[in-house]
Design goal:
By secondary structure, the chain is an all-alpha fold. α10 packs antiparallel against α11. The radius of gyration is 20 Å and the shape is globular.
Length: 208
C-alpha cells in the first residue's frame, strides 16, 4: 500500500501519518503496528517500539515480530522476569519455532542454567541442522568452557550451512586468536572490509 511505499523510500513521517488511524480503535492493524515499530526503531525510540510491540501482542499473541522485539528489549535491560514471561509464552505457543527456542536457550544462560541451554542447542541442531545459530551459540559456550577443539568443530559446521557465514567465520577467527593461531585468524579477518569487522576483528587487525 501507499504507507509501505513511504516506508521503503524513507519518508517516515508520511508513513506514520497513514499508519496512525490504523493504530487506533478496538482492533488495530498489525501491519501498521509493525511499520510504526520499524520507524521507531530506526529513530532509536525504544520505549515506543516496546509500547507498540505490547499493543501488537495483545491482538496477535503468537506473532514472532512482536515477541522477538519484546524479548530483545528485555534481554538488553537484563529484566529476567519480563524475559521469562515473554519467552515461556512464546515457546508454549510455538514449541517448534527455532527463534523461540533460541530465545529459550538465551534465557537459560541468563539464569545460569548452562546444561539446559546446551540441551536446547543440541535439540535445534537435530531438528534444524541448516541453521548456523545453534552451532555458533553452542560453540561460544564451549569456548567459555575451554573446549576449543569442540568449539572449532561447531563453527565449521555453522559455516557449512552457508547462512550468515561472516559472523561464524569471524567467531572462528576470534577462536584462532585466542588459541595462538594468529596466522589463521589474520587470513579470515583480512577477507572483510573494516566496516564488516566486529570489534574483536578491528582490534586484531589494528595490532597486526
Amino acid at each position: 500500500g501507499l504507507a509501505s511505499g513511504f516506508l521503503r523510500s524513507g519518508e517516515w513521517d508520511e508513513a506514520l501519518r497513514l499508519y496512525k488511524p490504523l493504530l487506533e480503535g478496538g482492533k488495530p492493524n498489525t501491519r501498521a503496528i509493525k511499520g510504526a515499530m520499524y520507524i521507531s526503531e530506526q529513530r532509536g525510540d525504544m520505549p515506543q517500539v516496546v509500547e507498540l510491540a505490547r499493543l501488537g501482542r495483545m491482538f496477535a499473541p503468537g506473532d514472532d515480530d512482536f515477541l522477538s522485539s519484546l524479548a530483545r528489549y528485555y534481554f538488553r535491560e537484563q529484566d529476567t522476569t519480563a524475559v521469562r514471561e515473554v519467552v515461556c509464552d512464546w515457546v508454549d505457543r510455538r514449541p517448534k519455532d527455532p527463534l523461540a527456542r533460541l530465545n529459550q536457550a538465551a534465557l537459560y544462560l541468563m539464569e545460569g542454567n548452562d546444561p539446559q541451554a546446551e540441551s536446547v542447542y543440541l535439540d535445534l541442531i537435530g531438528s534444524h541442522d541448516y541453521l548456523p545459530e545453534p552451532y555458533a551459540f553452542l560453540a561460544e559456550m564451549k569456548m567459555e568452557a575451554g573446549d576449543f577443539q569442540q568449539a572449532e568443530k561447531l563453527l565449521h559446521r555453522a559455516i557449512a550451512t552457508g547462512l550468515r557465514t561472516a559472523d561464524s567465520r569471524q567467531q572462528l577467527a576470534a577462536l584462532h586468536e585466542r588459541t595462538g593461531k594468529a596466522r589463521q585468524a589474520h587470513e579470515i579477518y583480512s577477507r572483510y572490509d573494516i566496516g564488516q569487522l566486529k570489534m574483536s576483528g578491528l582490534e586484531f587487525m589494528g595490532a597486526h
